[in-house]
Write a structure and sequence with these properties.
The protein has a single domain (4-120), classed as Pnp Oxidase, Chain A. Helix content is 23%, strand content 42%. It has three helices and eight strands. The protein has helices at residues 4-9, 50-58, 84-97; strands at residues 16-21, 27-32, 35-37, 40-46, 60-67, 70-81, 107-113, 116-119. Strands 1, 2, 3, 4, 5, 6, 7 and 8 form an eight-stranded antiparallel β-sheet that branches. β3 and β4 form a beta hairpin. The longest helix has 14 residues, at 84-97. The protein is globular and about 40 Å long.
Length: 125
């Protein structure tokens, strides 16, 4: 599904824009750090923030990361979980890509199961 170039891009330090549907169907787009592993995009954050409320309400999300002419976008069903094992895995992946996040007892993880991938030509298989 993804090329080696895409997997390399996804291991580098790049932020992205997470888009969810907010109240009244408006797009809510915010910058986030994210990770990708085995067809799942993960975003960590605090329980109750708008991006997580929107994902829980609609059950869908999209994320796009860009660096010059290189870009990749994922979309699919999304769920928010506070499961300790899922949160711990997401934190480990985040720490490996970015840095160790601060302690946050309200942490949850948004898990986006990738249905569709768009991206620059070197990223498409």
């Amino acid at each position: 599904m993804l090329t080696d170039d895409a997997l390399t891009f996804l291991s580098e330090y790049h932020l992205a824009t997470l888009s969810t549907l907010g109240r009244a169907g408006r797009v809510h787009a915010v910058p986030v750090g994210f990770t990708y592993e085995d067809g799942v995009v993960r975003i960590i954050g605090s329980r109750g923030t708008q991006k997580f409320l929107n994902a829980e309400r609609s059950g869908r999300a999209s994320i796009c990361s860009v660096d010059g002419g290189r870009w990749i976008s994922f979309e699919g069903p999304a769920r928010v979980t506070a499961d300790p094992a899922a949160v711990a895995r997401a934190v480990d992946l985040y720490a490996a890509r970015y840095r160790q996040p601060r302690v946050n007892p309200e942490r949850v993880v948004l898990e986006l199961t990738v249905e569709r991938v768009l991206g620059s030509a070197p990223f498409r298989a």
